[in-house]
Amino acid sequence: MPVLSIIACGMLEDELVHVLSKDCELKQLIVVENGNNSGFLRKLRAGNCVPRTIPLERVQMFFKAGFNPDFKALAKFLSPFPFLGKACEKMNEKAGQRISVVVNLLKLGLHADLELLKSEVYRNIREMAAFSDGILIFYGTCGHVLGELEKDFVDLGCPLFFLKDKAGEIVEDCISTALGGNEAYARAMLACRGKGTIYLTPMWASNWKNFGKKSGSRDLNNRYLKNSRYCLAVKIETGISYEPEFHKNVQEFAHTFGMKTAALKGSFEIAEQGYFYARRAVVKNSGCLPKNRQEIKF
Question: Please, what is the average pLDDT of the chain?
């Protein structure tokens, strides 16, 4: 059974819950137990996903101890019995479309220290490659600190997949992801030209106070956000939100820093396309596709 691992930014947990809840062929979902994901687990369960939680150091052992039936061997054994053989072949075809997903949601706020962000992502890639058939990096380039992953891991032996826009570029960050790509992000900034603008997704809007506590952003707030040149808080509406007080949080943010508010229509297409592309590639590369089918459509 192929294994797709995902190393994800906490800011993109809503998008990740969305794509996982849409995957009807998901055999099992494992969430790495790391103390950063209580909200993520709550949202998954609300979306009818039932994950296991396992510490990272035990995931490889879990897969080694797991039982994956060899339907091909069983079909051959049952070949003298046509009815049973055909039934087993159908089971084999269905099993070939299923996948195990391991999600490692890294803690919020790593973007405050880009070198720490890079070291954490790189370390987790090396550890998760040992049991993965592919790893989806559910991040943008984040100030370009993650822009050399393909080059740096060319000899990893485990393919890496990325969130890319229609132009084939890796998205810059979670805002670019929510807006639909780097070009859409550039257009939004151009439209707001001359105004200091902060873009807010549901996760940003619900966590901005916590960033202040964790990264000492009292200076950040006073020096930047309370600067008169920052005057606009833009609410990005992607059509998915597991944060019920999104609007209230945006209003509170804007009031705190004396900003006006505006709204932009966003998208969850990049998250969907990135996940299902990686999923198809992992299934195909593992040799689990049925012989009479080229790929699985979603």
Answer: 84
